[in-house]
Amino acid sequence: MVSRREFIKLTSMGAAVISTAGMNQCMNTGSSGKLKPAGGRLIDAHIHATPGKIEKALRVMDDNLIRYAVLIASISGSDPDYYVGDRAFYEINDAIKPYRNRLGLHYTYDWSLAENDPEFFIKAPDMLEKAVDAGAIALKNLKDLGLTARDREGKLIPIDDPRLFPIWERAEKLGIPVAFHTGDPVAFFQPWNPENERWEELELHPEWSFADRSKYPALETLFDQVNNVYRTFPGVKFVAVHVAGYSENLKAVSSWLDQLPNLSIDTAARIGELGRHSSGEGHEFFTKYQDRIMFGTDLAFWNECDVQGAGPCKDFTMEENHHFYDIHWRYFQTLDKQFDHPTPIQGNWKIDGIGLDESVLKKLYWDNAFRFYKLDRFGVA
Questions:
Q1: pLDDT surpassing 70 at residue 28
Q2: Per-residue pLDDT reduced to its tens digit, 340-369
Q3: Which three-class secondary structure state does DSSP give residue 202?
Q4: pTM value?
């Protein structure tokens, strides 16, 4: 049992409040002694899988009590490996048809069409509606938008470009959520040198360095643009993935959530950054916004290999994937101090658990995504 006094002593924020009864329930282990997710059922609201890896994704889900997962129809990379848009969506959509009560799919645009197809902006809303009719449960906008995507004149397309407004209007009419991946970790926008704390990750993915201001906008500019979209379309339900792209600054994310009632976030691939905040700050953040945060991992099952949020591409074993999820449970459910985060290539530091109450975990792991994506219509239980 962790008393309130012990919790306050363990954290740097005495204002944090935690239920000791909840802590007893959260720190649940099976006969093997391994931590189990509180509640016994989960939705992973952010994974990737190519058609040939759907069966493996389902096995990993079963092994980790994941009842349902939300797929993003994309695989990052460089031409000719960039797998997005209609091709990705319809191939994956066909592969998951037998599993509609286990897997849902976002539609994604191939933003290169904005540069190559003179009618893209006119066609885009109908492309979305066609995908929704085929089974898409949401729209996901990849980080290309605002960062690298260009129009026919070779100009960057701002996230809040009025030419895109008909897309958001169509999403509202269709009643589907819209996800945005905006920017990337702060370090990716800083000079790429050995002093950069993501040096190792950027060596593996040099295309993720956006420090050159002659090519890429500042991270703050991207945030201003996407927040303008959220404000302009209050009738659309938005989810800002990867802790709104700013897990380094929970005060900023808090201010956005306070100002934008139509905005939710997910936790995908950001446990490493979240765990750098004090246990008290993390606990307070997840408790305050307990109705607007969805659990996600960014686990990817690609044809040639798997990726655990970030880092090496390899064929991870069931045990390795189980360990990946275990670290998430440890972060959310315990007050353990200074343990390894699930994506060590993202930074050489340790993280602290935040010991959330059982009631908060239930919303994080299940209720919020179930409501956000209206999963009752698919018989998800």
A1: no
A2: 999 888 888 999 999 999 999 999 999 999
A3: helix
A4: 0.91
Rounded to whole angstroms, the Cα distance separating 60 from 126 reads 35
Domain 4-378 fold is TIM Barrel (3.20.20)
Shortest CA distance to 268 belongs to which of 323, 336, 319, 343? 343
What is the spatial distance between Cα 76 and Cα 84, in angstroms, rounded to a whole number?
A: 8
**Measured torsion, CA atoms of residues 194, 200, 205, 211, in degrees rounded to the nearest 10:** -30
Place of tokens 């044809």: 303
Phi, psi for residue 35 in degrees, rounded to 5:
-65, 140
- Inform me whether the pLDDT recorded for 146 exceeds 90: yes
pLDDT at 102 over 60: yes
DSSP string for 49-111: E-GGGHHHHHHHHHHTTEEEEEEES-B---TTS-B-HHHHHHHHHHHTGGGTTTEEEEEE--T
In the prediction, which pLDDT does 8 show? 27
Sign of the Cα pseudo-torsion (129, 121, 50, 216, in order): negative
At 200, which amino acid appears? E
- DSSP, collapsed to helix, strand or coil, labels residue 355 as coil
Residue type (1 letter), 110: D
Task: Report the amino acid identity of residue 262.
Answer: N
**Three-class SS state of 14:** coil
Q: Kindly list the domain boundaries of the chain, sorted by start residue.
A: 4-378
pLDDT of residue 81: 56
Q: Which candidate, 301, 360, 304, places its Cα nearest to that of 72?
A: 301
CA distance 18 to 376: 31
Residue 143 neighbours by CB distance under 10 Å: 22
d(CA 269, CA 288): 21
Best CA proximity match to 92, nearest among 80, 108, 78, 76: 108
